[in-house]
Amino acid sequence: MLPRSGDVLHVTRAASVQFFRPITFRVIRVLDWPTYDGWLWLDGYELNAAGDAVNRRSIYVQREGLRQLRAAPEQRSHTVRPRRPVVRTPVRVG
Questions:
Q1: Which residues 6+ apart lie within 8 Å of 82 measured at CB?
Q2: What Cα–Cα distance (Å) separates residue 91 from each residue in 14, 21, 78, 86, 88?
Q3: Model confidence, pTM
Q4: What is the rounded distance in angstroms from the CA atom of residue 37 to the CA atom of residue 42?
Q5: What is the percent of the chain where pLDDT is above 70?
Q6: CA distance 80 to 32
Protein backbone atom coordinates (compact mmCIF):
# COMPACT_ATOMS: atom_id res chain seq x y z
CA MET A 1 0.00 0.00 0.00
CA LEU A 2 1.41 3.38 -1.00
CA PRO A 3 -0.11 6.08 1.23
CA ARG A 4 -1.81 9.12 -0.26
CA SER A 5 -2.25 12.61 1.06
CA GLY A 6 -5.01 12.56 3.69
CA ASP A 7 -4.66 8.89 4.65
CA VAL A 8 -4.65 8.15 8.38
CA LEU A 9 -2.23 5.36 9.31
CA HIS A 10 -1.49 3.28 12.38
CA VAL A 11 2.31 3.20 12.61
CA THR A 12 3.74 0.46 14.83
CA ARG A 13 6.99 -1.35 15.41
CA ALA A 14 6.21 -3.41 12.27
CA ALA A 15 6.88 -0.26 10.25
CA SER A 16 10.07 0.72 12.11
CA VAL A 17 11.73 -0.11 15.43
CA GLN A 18 11.52 3.56 16.45
CA PHE A 19 7.76 3.16 17.00
CA PHE A 20 7.91 1.17 20.22
CA ARG A 21 4.77 3.10 21.12
CA PRO A 22 2.42 3.09 18.13
CA ILE A 23 1.23 6.41 16.72
CA THR A 24 -1.64 7.54 14.54
CA PHE A 25 -0.33 9.52 11.57
CA ARG A 26 -2.09 11.63 8.90
CA VAL A 27 -0.11 11.80 5.67
CA ILE A 28 0.60 15.14 4.02
CA ARG A 29 2.78 13.66 1.28
CA VAL A 30 5.15 10.85 0.42
CA LEU A 31 8.60 12.41 0.13
CA ASP A 32 10.66 11.63 -2.95
CA TRP A 33 13.90 11.00 -1.06
CA PRO A 34 16.25 8.11 -1.85
CA THR A 35 15.54 5.05 0.31
CA TYR A 36 16.08 1.32 0.44
CA ASP A 37 13.63 -0.88 -1.43
CA GLY A 38 10.36 -1.17 0.51
CA TRP A 39 11.04 1.90 2.70
CA LEU A 40 9.66 5.41 2.31
CA TRP A 41 9.70 8.83 3.90
CA LEU A 42 6.33 10.26 4.93
CA ASP A 43 5.61 13.85 5.87
CA GLY A 44 2.56 14.43 8.05
CA TYR A 45 1.02 14.93 11.47
CA GLU A 46 0.98 12.74 14.53
CA LEU A 47 -2.58 12.63 15.84
CA ASN A 48 -3.83 12.36 19.43
CA ALA A 49 -6.72 10.13 20.58
CA ALA A 50 -9.25 12.80 19.54
CA GLY A 51 -7.80 12.93 16.02
CA ASP A 52 -6.21 16.37 16.44
CA ALA A 53 -2.77 17.07 14.98
CA VAL A 54 -0.26 17.44 17.82
CA ASN A 55 3.12 17.20 16.11
CA ARG A 56 4.36 17.58 12.53
CA ARG A 57 6.85 14.85 11.62
CA SER A 58 8.75 13.25 8.79
CA ILE A 59 9.01 9.52 9.40
CA TYR A 60 11.02 6.74 7.73
CA VAL A 61 9.01 3.51 7.58
CA GLN A 62 8.61 0.19 5.81
CA ARG A 63 5.64 0.27 3.48
CA GLU A 64 4.55 -3.27 4.47
CA GLY A 65 4.37 -2.35 8.16
CA LEU A 66 1.79 0.40 7.72
CA ARG A 67 -1.88 -0.16 8.50
CA GLN A 68 -4.48 2.18 7.06
CA LEU A 69 -7.12 3.34 9.54
CA ARG A 70 -8.95 5.75 7.26
CA ALA A 71 -8.50 6.41 3.57
CA ALA A 72 -8.31 9.91 2.17
CA PRO A 73 -11.62 11.20 0.80
CA GLU A 74 -12.09 10.56 -2.90
CA GLN A 75 -11.20 13.50 -5.08
CA ARG A 76 -14.15 15.21 -6.67
CA SER A 77 -14.05 15.70 -10.39
CA HIS A 78 -13.51 19.27 -11.44
CA THR A 79 -16.54 20.79 -13.15
CA VAL A 80 -15.70 23.05 -16.05
CA ARG A 81 -18.29 25.72 -16.61
CA PRO A 82 -18.55 27.60 -19.89
CA ARG A 83 -17.32 31.16 -19.66
CA ARG A 84 -19.65 34.03 -20.33
CA PRO A 85 -18.60 36.17 -23.28
CA VAL A 86 -17.10 39.53 -22.35
CA VAL A 87 -19.17 42.46 -23.52
CA ARG A 88 -16.94 45.26 -24.73
CA THR A 89 -18.35 48.73 -25.09
CA PRO A 90 -16.65 51.95 -26.11
CA VAL A 91 -15.45 54.17 -23.26
CA ARG A 92 -15.85 57.90 -23.47
CA VAL A 93 -12.69 59.77 -22.57
CA GLY A 94 -12.59 63.41 -21.59
A1: none
A2: 71, 71, 37, 15, 9
A3: 0.74
A4: 15
A5: 96
A6: 32
CA 34 → CA 2, 8, 26, 70, 88, distances in Å? 16, 23, 22, 27, 55
* C-alpha to C-alpha distance for 92 and 94, rounded to whole angstroms: 7
22's enclosing H/E stretch is none
Of 3, 1, 2, the C-alpha closest to 45 is: 3
pLDDT range class, residue 37, cuts 50, 70, 90: very high
Q: Which tops the pLDDT comparison, 53 or 77?
A: 53
Q: Which of 29, 28, 33, 22 is nearest to 66 (CA)?
A: 22
Amino acid sitting at position 8: V
Which pLDDT belongs to residue 44? 96
- 29-43, 60-74, 75-89: least confident range: 75-89
